[in-house]
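F.,

This is the one I mentioned.
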């Protein structure tokens, strides 16, 4: 027989459990191996019910549906997204990939001899914006053969001093303007003697170089200004511009407003040329043979011009030319809005 309290075996006929001292009866001494649900004192000897395994098919189906939905969303998004701009380039700086827009792209750089200009640098600058870029900064470098402190020949890269002959010379040696799209640019030596770079060793004399000495020429664009909304740039042909030089060098001429806008002011930008169409002295008699003196800024202009009207240009006192010819290269118009 067994004790109903502690479950230990007790001798047959015992009145008390030898282990825990609980009273024993014949009825209580029989242990029911089929435990009732509310018997918490003894662990159940009946086998535990088996848990049903749930099928994974519904889960797989749900995941598949989710993937199809995400894929469909991405397809719709890809179709709806705008096409990538052709002028976008991907760069990797410090391991981070990012998109950078090239507003101005330089291509086709070559040094060449041009009739009337001599040795010059020709290139194409593509303006990928919808705006006219003004006063575009440029940096020009080239490889030159120098003689170092030991008298040995070596090649080194030097910065070159160039000025923009076409489309025009801007402020502080910049390109005057670049229209949207491709622009053909011509650069000349800034110095009248043709010097574009120089090198001085620590124990030697200065060595001067011209464009004919340069190789592997590189041109980079820098900062630029956006033309304001109420301004426009016109070619001389678009406004029937004429320029005359009096015997004393005084500049005069006429301009016609062929647009539908009223002009508050039209400033004519000039370039001094010789008989061959090359750099031809100074417009402003500044006592220097540097190329930049061949250009004039806002010295010849007209004000308050109606559409269709032809008016005389106003020439300030300083606007005189020592050159045989003064060529108008562009007109900056301030519209009355």
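My design for it:
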């Amino acid at each position: 027989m067994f004790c109903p309290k502690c479950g230990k075996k007790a001798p047959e006929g015992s009145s008390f459990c030898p282990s825990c001292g609980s009273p024993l009866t014949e009825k209580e001494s029989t242990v029911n191996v089929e435990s009732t649900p509310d018997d918490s004192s003894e662990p159940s000897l009946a086998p535990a019910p088996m848990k049903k395994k749930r099928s994974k098919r519904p889960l797989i189906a749900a995941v598949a549906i989710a993937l199809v939905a995400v894929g469909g969303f991405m397809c719709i998004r890809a179709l709806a997204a705008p096409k990538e701009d052709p002028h976008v380039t991907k760069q990797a700086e410090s391991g981070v990939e990012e998109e950078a827009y090239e507003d101005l792209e330089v291509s086709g750089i070559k040094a060449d001899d041009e009739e009337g200009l001599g040795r010059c640098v020709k290139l194409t600058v593509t303006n990928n914006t919808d705006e006219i870029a003004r006063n575009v900064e440029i940096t020009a470098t080239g490889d030159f053969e120098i003689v170092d402190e030991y008298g040995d020949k070596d090649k080194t890269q030097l910065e070159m001093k160039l000025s923009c002959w076409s489309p025009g010379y801007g402020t502080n040696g910049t390109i005057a303007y670049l229209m949207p799209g491709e622009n053909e640019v011509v650069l000349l030596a800034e110095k009248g003697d043709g010097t574009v770079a120089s090198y001085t060793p620590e124990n030697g004399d200065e060595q001067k170089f011209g464009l004919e000495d340069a190789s592997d020429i590189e041109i980079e664009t820098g900062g630029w200004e956006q033309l304001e909304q109420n301004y426009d740039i016109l070619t001389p042909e678009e406004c029937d511009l004429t320029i005359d030089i009096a015997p004393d060098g005084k500049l005069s001429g006429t301009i016609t407003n062929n647009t539908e806008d009223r002009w508050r002011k039209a400033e004519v930008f000039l370039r001094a040329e010789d008989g061959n169409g090359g750099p031809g002295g100074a417009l402003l008699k500044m006592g220097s043979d540097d190329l930049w003196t061949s250009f004039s800024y806002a010295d010849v202009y007209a004000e308050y011009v109606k559409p269709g009207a032809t008016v005389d240009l106003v020439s300030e006192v300083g606007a005189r030319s020592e050159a045989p010819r003064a060529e108008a290269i562009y007109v900056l118009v301030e519209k009355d809005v």
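The chain is about 5% helix and 40% strand.

Talk soon.
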